[in-house]
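hey
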């Protein structure tokens, strides 16, 4: 049996301005099966999460380098 998806998350390579992102939103809405697109506003929490993830990965790389 196969899985059924109710949502797909699209991650952008950078935070575009809302007027620039409208073209992307409109294009996604044109895909068959899409019933809505909800933009997520970049805020301090988004940047904090990104920086935290980068630091965790850097720490793991340093630990791996020390072990070799």
């Amino acid at each position: 049996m196969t899985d059924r998806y109710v949502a797909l998350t699209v991650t952008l390579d950078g935070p575009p301005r809302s007027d620039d992102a409208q073209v992307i939103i409109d294009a996604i809405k044109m895909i068959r099966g899409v019933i809505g697109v909800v933009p997520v506003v970049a805020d301090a929490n988004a940047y904090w999460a990104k920086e935290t993830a980068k630091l965790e990965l850097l720490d793991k790389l340093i630990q791996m380098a020390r072990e070799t």
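The chain has one domain: 18-67. Helices lie at 18-29, 44-67.
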